[in-house]
Amino acid sequence: MKIAFPIQANEGLNGSLAEHFGRAPRFVIYETDKDEVHTIDNTGDHFGGQISTPVLLSKNHVDILICRGLGRRAIARFAELGINIFLTQSQIVKQALDAYKKGELTPATDADGCAGRHGE
Questions:
Q1: DSSP E strand boundaries for the chain
Q2: Buried-most residue among 41, 47, 71, 103 (CB within 10 A)?
Q3: What is the pLDDT of residues 31-46, one digit of tens each?
Q4: CA-CA distance, 120 to 113, in Å (whole number)?
């Protein structure tokens, strides 16, 4: 299983989680079966790419996204792609991963989605 985390800097499991998944410049992907970590750049449409960030993660065979926040449209798109979303208040990837492993995170619902303004 692959779990993705939106991050600011390429610091692996010690990296800081981005406040909003779609604006994160990169993602840490943790492979539970192999206990391996790698990082991919966010080449989604927010960063000039041709595909949405949910599709980018789907193409990288991500099963779960753990993040601090995302919009309602993204929640719906992830659901269409079969990617489960869990929300965390943790600041560090490893803390969020540990909370997920302990069953402390709850799945995101439409009600958890932000309106998409983010001070813009």
A1: 2-7, 26-31, 36-41, 64-67, 84-87, 106-107
A2: 71
A3: 999 999 999 999 876 6
A4: 17
Give dist(CA 95, CA 93) in Å, integer. 5
Flag whether pLDDT at 111 surpasses 70.
Answer: no
d(CA 12, CA 24): 14
List the beta strands (DSSP E) in 50-96.
Answer: 64-67, 84-87
Instruction: Fill in the amino acid letter for 98.
Output: D
Q: Which residue has the tokens 């779990």?
A: 3
- Which domains are assigned to the chain? 2-112 (3.30.420.130)
% of the chain residues with pLDDT over 90: 68
Q: 6: which residues sit within 8 A by CB, 6+ positions away?
A: 17, 18, 20, 21, 22, 23, 24, 26, 27, 42, 65, 67, 68
**Contact indicator for 44, 51 with CB cutoff of 8 Å:** yes
Token look-up 């610091």 returns 11
From 2, 3, 115, 12, select the one nearest 69 (Cα to Cα): 115
